[in-house]
Amino acid sequence: MSTTLLVVQMLNGLQLGILLFLIAAGLTLVFGVMDFVNLAHGVQYMLGAYLAVLFWRLTGSFALALPLALVAAFAIGLALELAIFRRLYARDHLDQVLATFGLILILNDGVKALFGNAPLSLPMPEALSGAVRIMDGLSYPLYRLVLIAAGLAVAAGLALLVSRTRAGMLVRAGASDAAMVSALGVDIGRLFSLVFAFGAMLAAFAGAMAAPLLSVESGMGDNLLVLAFVVIVIGGIGSIRGAFVASLIVGLVDTLGRSFATDILKLAFSPSAANQAGPAIASMAIYILMAAILFVRPAGLFPASRSA
Amino acid sequence: MKAAGPDTARRLSAAILIPLVLFAALALLPLAAQFGPKAYILSLGTRLMIFALAAISLDLILGYGGMVSFGHAAFLGIGGYAAGILVDEGRGDLLLALPLAMAASALFAAATGYVSIRTRGVAFIMITLAFAQMAYFFANTLSAYGGSDGLSLLARSGVAGLPLMKNDTAFFYVVLAILALAFGACRLLVASPFGQALEAVRQNPGRMAAMGYDTDRIKLIAYAISGTLCGVAGFLLANQTEFVSPSYMAWQRSGELIAMVVLGGMGTLHGALLGAVAFLALEEILSDLTPHWRLVFGPILILVVLMGRGGLVGLIGRMRR
């Protein structure tokens, strides 16, 4: 367990945490404001990656493809909200789960029908493709550092947006009492649409930024969606701050667990037992963590205060 | 505690008529299969019944208990792996393997249910999903039993040493008998004082708590019964396909189980039966027509949610009016 390996894995964990935050932020906002469970949030991450590939093919430039993908994702989010989601706000969670599950089936199969079954790839932008020397014997890909920095910047921007602007104030007010906000003359329907589309755009940003690192394929958002659920359950549903803290915890625990669980077990058990149990424990670590946190605090680490 | 009234008689008769027709049709299916592609019809029929069993088990907690479990496929996997591992170890006889599969499912349900039931509403959905994912990833690391490639069963379980399930027709009737038994048992359960208490906890947990009921305990028992029953379905599924893999527990599978229950009409038991049959038949027909059958299936699901009231059972009720 050398220091360099530890630093590299910490950075990898941070990177996963940042991606998770970008997805979980939209999920928790939509849940906090509209009391809406959106399973299809993971496919919006996938759409972001596919849109980035599509626009890169059209323009040949990642710098152009990224903003175009974000605009398109915002528009798609808006269209989906108007066509389907707004009919579901008043329904119970079961209906929401089922309808958005149907949407996952459509979109996961839709990209296969449009782009083919084979995974796509997006080349790394030229300017960001190098590596940076962090310390002796350790260099880390520049693009991954940029991804971490971009995610942190978005998190800071989001915090400012929610706590300091009028739009953010309305979002917070909507989360605590939507009916009252509506009675005070705010167009709550429009607010909901915008929050929803904004959340879709954040997920698409994560997908587009991750596209050069991963293979872009149908279903790529599904497992991240489940991780994002773990994040917002740990963080406290509806809380942006909770989502941020929990994202980093989950990202780090998952990544470090996978790299070091076997080594740590070797300290106490025979190597063969450690080799058997290590991967199993590592793959379950975050779920065990979630169960432990929920056991102590059923509402998560930062329960958002909601008036009945 | 359903509302009593002139509607009750109609609903009661549907509650008897629908399962009666379905079970009679199923019992005759192997005879009808003689005139068609027999192996295909038998295997589809067996698959329908196994998923109907899983859907009924989910309806117990979803329809009656109001617990939206998004991780029910985990129990299919646990039952399936119990079957696979025990056959692999040469202890595959149904009389030993099935109780062990049920015990494993019950244990997992009790442990995860104990934590999950402390949460409310949407957190329950997410935490059951997360626990199922945990089981899914754990199965992926089971390298001694195939890991992510899955595990092939050398043979189906015997019954008391007899190769009763080797023959497809015999296996079909074994599954039918188990399904009928489970359906009857669930009917008795929901009509029992326990079942009534479970429904009351869904409708008004505060009041039940004030009346001295331990609401979490009632929900946990129901959750464990439901998980155990679904484990039986997993056990049978692994025996039918003679294969078990982590994909048994994929979260899409959990979503499909919910879709079956809601499509059929939840909180009726026979709705779950009907829903499983309709879901799998639809999947079979659509996937025959196009590889992108989910493009058709997804919109149907959304429309059922937006327009459908009470699923197929509700539709039948309105048609009889």
Biggest sheet strand order of chain B reads 1-2
> Would you tell me the structural class of the helices and strands of chain A?
mainly alpha
State the helicity of chain B in percent bands: over 70%
DSSP strand (E) fraction of chain B?
under 5%
Question: Assembly type of the shown chains?
Answer: heterodimer
What does this structure look like?
The complex is a heterodimer of chains A (308) and B (321). Helices cover 75% and strands 3% of the residues of chain A. Chain A is mainly alpha-helical. In chain A, strand 1 and strand 2 form a beta hairpin. In chain A, 48% of the residues are buried. The model of chain A has no long low-confidence stretch (mean pLDDT 89). With 321 residues, chain B is mostly helical. In chain B, helix 2 packs parallel to helix 6 (168-191). The longest helix of chain B has 28 residues, at 6-33. In chain B, strands 1-2 form a two-stranded antiparallel sheet. Helices cover 74% and strands 1% of the residues of chain B. Chain B has one domain: ABC transporter involved in vitamin B12 uptake, BtuC (Orthogonal Bundle). At the A-B interface, helix 4, helix 9 and helix 11 of A face helix 5, helix 10 and helix 12 of B.
